[in-house]
What does this fold into?
Amino acid sequence: MQRALAEVVLVGAAGGALGCWVVFYGLSYAAESLAHSIFPGLVLAAIAGVPLLLGAGPAIVLAALAIALCARIAGVSREAAVAVVVTTMFGLGVLLALSPQSPPGVESLLFGDIFGVTDADLATAAALAALVAVALRLLHGRLLIAGFDRGTARSLGVSPAFADAALLVLLAAGIVVAVQGLGNLLVVAVFVGPAAAARRLSERMLSMMLLSAGLAVLAGIAGLYLSYYAGTAGGASVALAIVAVYLLSLPLGRLRGSLRQPAARAEATIA
Amino acid sequence: MQPEALIEAAGLSAGYDGTPAISAVEFTLSAGQTLALLGPNGGGKTTLMRAVLGDLRPMAGTLRVGAACGTVPQTERSRLDYPVSALDVATMGTLSRLPWWRRPGHPEREAAARALARVGLEALAEETFGRLSGGQRQRVLIARALVQDAGVLLLDEPFSGLDRPSSEGLEALIAELAAEGRGVVIATHDLEQARGCDLVLCINKRQVACGRPDDVLGDVGVLEATYGGAIVEIPGGGGRAILPPHHHHH
It folds into this structure.
């Protein structure tokens, strides 16, 4: 239980903060797709009996390259390229998972095994959290400019393509680490749910990132306790707790908006 | 004494993938001057702006730009749900001066605050950008360009969607910024606005005319060549107007 708690705190903090950029860069679909596309890598790693990270890493690089290549074919949109690559990769993963060589317990790759994290998994998660924190701090100004208005980013000395690429690399690293606890199908929740909730409750990027990380950690802990005491599946409980946080943010956001209205009107008189 | 030339274009062609979108562009913008850039949508206004910014290389002719350029885009193209304050947006103008590992700190935010004060928005520095009015958002983006120390300001249809008081306030600000020795290029559809500038440049794939507003706008032939037939005479001596263009951006 202690290891599981440490894992959700680390993954929640990194995923929640990174998720704010995922939401503003419109990368939610990309996040989900990248997560699904590493399935064959996870299954191969399980068959070979090596750490899952060794399968997930190459798979995500392969998927990203394939998407970039497919999107270059004339008449194929980026979205279509993502869909084709992801279904191919996921299908391949299912074929491998159903083969006789496949070890038992492959479903934990799909739905996560948060109570099975090892000390090595924790160390990787800690390294990821540190990497994301440092990278987001260094890139903050650039990400802010490119996300605000891509058209003029270049005239402010920022390449939008660089910002996209940096964000996708961080996202890929985050997915590869978080997938062990939350599973292939549910990992996207931590990158999208808390950020979407925080967006309704905050009007500054930094406070939104802190809030999102906090919400992700809280939801993670709540999900673990639910799983522990109610006997529900760990990854799914965490994902459901994240959804609950988002649903709670809807009325809170509305309340916040109605409280703020009179102040905004007073300021509007300053033309 | 001759004022310093900030932009000099001679026989300029520019475009994309080997096809020129504008050609035969020829003008000089000096320090302290405002230039109205008139033309239909798709006529090459944005292409000329991008060439001046250095995003596009000239395909023929020469283009000399003697000062840093700051762009002031249409604010509806930036995200109004973005979690940033007016001060955050103005501070974006400092980033290109900093080494890549440094974040804007206190001196940078001070500079941004001064620029916001310059455009009359010090009271709203901490307001969320998306909550400001259209005219206020334009001013924030002008402040961002001032933070960049831009000697040339490129404004893309700054008056579209503004009510009359905001529009007049913005015109006065632009005139002040030009009087301080900057060059200002304003892409616009508004003939009244264009009349208030020092120079008018009409383009429709190629340069149609360039000169003083009275000379250029007094010639119906020039306006017809620029906008096709989409010009109406306003009854009762109201002058000429361009039929509202269909809004689609590239």
